[in-house]
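Data's thin. Show one?
=====
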Amino acid sequence: MILGVILFTSMILTSCGNKGYDLSSPESTINTLIKASSEKDKDGLSLCFSKQSPREFKSIVNKKLTDKDLNDLKEMFENAKIKSSKIDGSSASVSIKLENRDEEIWMVKENENWVILDF
């Protein structure tokens, strides 16, 4: 019985190898972005972006962020709040409130995950 519980728990933890990050909706991806930014997590940040994102995001997609980049992202998304979201088929937009400005984030659905295309 105990062995069964241990094996089941191990399977659950293995399937959540992405630190519990959720990309199943536009809002959850933005929450993942906020969480990964606060933790300076290159892997988590990379998960949030489309491989089709513009060149300015390639360092995030390719996990080539410097310490300064990570600090800038942490500061940018600190206290970020989702204002609204809209889904239109396999694309979406999410409006967020940052510390000193509002931002519109454009997203696409890729392989059942919502990822950031541009903002």
In short: Strands lie at 81-88, 91-97, 102-110, 113-118.
